[in-house]
Amino acid sequence: MLQSRSSTFKMMQNEVQADRQISSFPKPYRSDATPYSGIDFDPYVKESCCSSTSLVAGLTIAKVIILGDVAVGKTSLVNRFCHEIFDSNYKATIGVDFEVEQFNILKVPFNLQIWDTAGQERFKSIASSYYRRAHAVIITFDMTNAISLSHCYEWKREAMLVNNKYVHIFLVGTKRDILTSPKAFSEMESRGMKVAAELGAELWCVSSRTGERVTEMFHRVAALTFNSTFPRGDERMKQVALGGNLMPFKNPSKMSHQKCVSCT
Ligand SMILES: Nc1nc2c(ncn2[C@@H]2O[C@H](COP(=O)(O)OP(=O)(O)OP(=O)(O)O)[C@@H](O)[C@H]2O)c(=O)[nH]1
């Protein structure tokens, strides 16, 4: 039997960490380094989520893929956000890993399925088979390694071979803690901004070692994908009629899947 939305939401909110509650639209890293100019959730989305009388039927899980050269810090980014840990030892990702992180956005449960792919060439064919049907693509580069930034065009090209133009693209510079000189940081940030503009991506500069800007970046990914995938009008009614994605969402609390090379 379908529970009332308010009691269902109370249950769900209890399960979601306090820092995964998003009640206002997260800001970009820099307003001049993003193609996503909206400053708030779509009015329809806000109204649907805040109405206490209507059922919310939305996409409850969005797929995010993280790409980039070997050892730029993809796994560290995921580990910092999902587990609040950082390991200075390098362990190569074999194929892909994934994590599922639960959010409440405008009090509606929403999940990010975050796919961490291998940067090593020998695992590329396995990893690339997981690129399809993404809602967001996070292309990473190491802020201390300009070559890794120049390779981001190729990472985007590969992601777009199997995704449509509506996917959100983020360009994320990692290891900002190593660039202790403000001049070196600002030079790399400017180069990142130029590449982000050419890729049609939103730029972030983060550190998994210190955690700087990591949570903010993933909140932005969650909010933008939630906002854009929320069904509107007829589409929403069609989902209700088909019984698809009706609340309550049945996903178990937190899941992870280590070093998987054989599932989709
Ligand atoms: N100082 C510093 N080191 C970092 C940061 N992020 C990652 N590293 C280090 O960079 C190395 C590579 O990090 P990983 O996260 O394993 O890189 P990856 O991109 O997942 O590597 P592959 O899976 O093989 O492609 C490790 O030694 C990390 O500790 C950071 O923000 N700051």
TrEMBL record:
<keyword id="KW-0472">Membrane</keyword>
<keyword id="KW-0342">GTP-binding</keyword>
<dbReference type="GO" id="GO:0015031">
    <property type="term" value="P:protein transport"/>
</dbReference>
<keyword id="KW-0636">Prenylation</keyword>
<comment type="function">
    <text>The small GTPases Rab are key regulators of intracellular membrane trafficking, from the formation of transport vesicles to their fusion with membranes. Rabs cycle between an inactive GDP-bound form and an active GTP-bound form that is able to recruit to membranes different sets of downstream effectors directly responsible for vesicle formation, movement, tethering and fusion.</text>
</comment>
<keyword id="KW-0813">Transport</keyword>
<keyword id="KW-0479">Metal-binding</keyword>
<dbReference type="GO" id="GO:0000139">
    <property type="term" value="C:Golgi membrane"/>
</dbReference>
<dbReference type="GO" id="GO:0046872">
    <property type="term" value="F:metal ion binding"/>
</dbReference>
<dbReference type="GO" id="GO:0003925">
    <property type="term" value="F:G protein activity"/>
</dbReference>
<keyword id="KW-0378">Hydrolase</keyword>
<dbReference type="GO" id="GO:0005525">
    <property type="term" value="F:GTP binding"/>
</dbReference>
<comment type="similarity">
    <text>Belongs to the small GTPase superfamily. Rab family.</text>
</comment>
<dbReference type="InterPro" id="IPR005225">
    <property type="entry name" value="Small_GTP-bd"/>
</dbReference>
<keyword id="KW-0460">Magnesium</keyword>
<dbReference type="Pfam" id="PF00071">
    <property type="entry name" value="Ras"/>
</dbReference>
<keyword id="KW-0547">Nucleotide-binding</keyword>
<protein>
    <recommendedName>
        <fullName>Ras-related protein Rab-36</fullName>
        <ecNumber>3.6.5.2</ecNumber>
    </recommendedName>
</protein>
<keyword id="KW-0653">Protein transport</keyword>
<dbReference type="InterPro" id="IPR050227">
    <property type="entry name" value="Rab"/>
</dbReference>
<keyword id="KW-0449">Lipoprotein</keyword>
<dbReference type="InterPro" id="IPR001806">
    <property type="entry name" value="Small_GTPase"/>
</dbReference>
<dbReference type="InterPro" id="IPR027417">
    <property type="entry name" value="P-loop_NTPase"/>
</dbReference>
<keyword id="KW-0333">Golgi apparatus</keyword>
